[in-house]
Structures are given as C-alpha cells and as structure tokens.
Design brief:
By secondary structure, the chain is of the alpha+beta class. It has eight helices and 19 strands. The strands form six sheets. A four-stranded mixed sheet has the order 12-17-18-19. It has a three-stranded antiparallel sheet with strand order 1-10-11. It starts with a strand and ends with a helix. The structure holds 2-amino-4-trifluoromethylsulfanyl-butyric acid and cobalt (II) ion (CO) (2 copies).
C-alpha cells in the first residue's frame, strides 16, 4: 500500500495508470499469478511453519512462472512478500524466527511482476483455531473489500469506494486505517490515484475505463492509528489490537469493473461470505483460468 505523507497530494504528482487495450492481457497475466500465489500459500498455511517458509514458497513459485517479486528490494524491503500477523497492519517482514501458531491471523501480500506489469493482492488467513471475534473481523474485512469493488464503474469516484468500505465497517465497531491506501498500479508498482478506504460519495478522482488500481482495506478491531516498528517497515496498531486486510487489483471497464487478482476459489469464498456480486463486476482471474491444478499450463 502507499504510505501517505502529510501535506502532499500524491494523486496530483504522479500519473494515473490507464492501460492501452493491448496491455490489458498483460495485467491479467500478472493478476492471475498473484491469485495463484495466494492460492498456493493458502493450501500450505498451518501452525508450525515460519513466515520465512511462506516467503520461500512465494519466491519459488514466482521464479517458476518466470516472474519477479516486486517487493524484494523495493525501497530496500528484504523479502518476496509481506507477512503481517495479528496486530501487524501491513509490511510485516518474513522471518525464520516467527512460527505460525494456532489462533493467529496472517495477511500475506504478494506482487509478482509479469512482463513488466504488476499484480498486487493479499488475503488474511486463519491459522488453526481462531477465536470468533478475530474470525468475524477477517470475514467482515473481506466483505468490505468487495463492497469497495462493487462501487467501481466509469464515472464513480475514489470517494465512492472509500465510502462503501467505511460505511460498512464503522457501524460494526471497526476502524479504518488511514495511513495506508490503495494505489494506481500497472507498469509502476505504486502510482496515482491514492485509493483511501474511507471517504465521501462523489469526492476525489473520477474513475474511467482502463484505469488499474488496488483496493486493500486494513480494518482494525480497536484504534485506527498505526506505529512503524524500528525495522522501518512493520506497521502495527497503536493499541496492538488485531488488524485484517484483503487486497485485489482491479481494472475499470466500460460497464463496471474487472477483478484481476481473483483466486481459483473466489466464487466459493464470495458465496460463503454471503456476497452476491453485481453483474457489472467481472471476476477476471476466475473467468480466465481453470482450477489451480491446471493454472500452470494456462499462461
Ligand atoms: N504489496 C504492498 C501493497 O499492497 C506493498 C508492499 S511494498 C513492500 O501495496 F516493500 F513492503 F513490499
Ligand atoms: Co497494494
Ligand atoms: Co499488496
């Protein structure tokens, strides 16, 4: 996610990512690999593995697909993905010393670069037996991402996305992180617009076909504010209460939105969460790729 700096309007300074039609297939490939990486990690998540093990899985599968991990070396980030456990909001650094324990929630955030294009996605996974409050936070955060996605169409604004997310989560007692936002993405990892996960309807940049950006709400059980630890990366909640996040990369289409980073089980996940997706939402990754076992040969 983009770190927001005070007194600086990032969307005014950087170019918005608007794809040419011949670039859409390339963004689909990058997005599809991001979904595939998370499907792979999801199958392997269990108590006892370390976050360095997760990083190694992401590295291996990325390399097998002739792709590159955007996070590695990004402003000096030392790993292939971010692993953010419990009170960690985002940008957790994989470590051989951190083993997953039953009851943890962990967000894994991946961004493969395929032929120069970035696909950015994350999911929060439940490890072993997770208490009902934490589980509900994770489920509601997933719903909030999809409410944000459903607000995307030509003529809508980034404020509509933020409003859709905020107006769902705050009445449920959660808080929306404000230091980090979604972002334009394409050949560049982080560009305009900044996609805040709170906001007012009709405000901010208008969306138009060809724009690609991420939506990646970070939702907290307690205070919305974050601290960054001494490693310069790990963002934690100020009160050390739990935080969850889901992220997709999306493309604004003529009629609505296409989700580029869907996983193979996205439809089941949506059904389990009780979400019915409006017709203008195209779940690109799914429509494009066969079930996980066959994805390898699809691209
Ligand atoms: N993937 C993150 C995002 O959603 C960014 C990670 S940058 C890193 O924007 F350097 F921390 F890897
Ligand atoms: Co992102
Ligand atoms: Co990400």
């Amino acid at each position: 996610m983009t770190r927001r700096k005070r007194n600086r309007h990032s969307s005014g300074e950087r170019a918005v990512s608007v794809l040419q039609s011949h670039e859409i297939g390339q963004m689909r490939s990058a997005g599809r690999l991001a979904g595939e990486l998370l499907d792979h990690v999801e199958r392997e998540i269990r108590p006892g593995i370390t976050t360095a093990d997760i990083d190694a899985m992401v590295h291996k599968l990325t390399a097998e697909r002739d792709a590159v991990s955007a996070p590695l070396g990004y402003h000096g980030f030392p790993a292939h993905c971010c692993t953010s456990i419990n009170e960690v909001v985002c940008h957790g650094i994989p470590s051989p010393r951190r083993r997953l324990e039953s009851g943890d929630i962990i967000n894994v955030d991946v961004t493969p670069i395929v032929d120069g294009f970035h696909g950015d996605a994350s999911r929060t996974f439940l490890v072993g037996d997770v208490n009902p409050i934490a589980r509900r936070l994770v489920e509601d955060t997933y719903v909030s991402l999809w409410l944000g996605i459903a607000a995307v169409r030509p003529g809508a604004t980034v404020g509509d996305i933020g409003y859709a997310i905020q107006s769902f989560v705050e009445p449920r007692g959660y808080a929306v992180v404000r230091q980090f936002s979604g972002h334009g993405i394409g050949r560049i990892f982080h560009t305009a617009p900044a996609v805040m996960h709170y906001g007012r309807r009709g405000e901010g940049m208008a969306l138009r076909p060809g724009m690609t950006f991420t939506i990646e709400p970070m939702i907290n059980l307690g205070d919305w504010r974050c601290d960054v630890l001494d490693d310069g990366w790990t963002a934690v909640t100020v009160d050390r209460a739990l935080s969850a996040q889901f992220e997709h990369t999306v493309l604004v289409t003529e009629r609505g939105v296409e989700v580029l980073t869907a996983g193979a089980c996205e439809l089941e996940r949506l059904a389990a969460a009780g979400i019915s997706v409006p017709e203008m939402v195209r779940i690109g990754g799914l429509a494009m790729s066969p079930p996980p076992a066959k994805v390898a040969s699809a691209s």
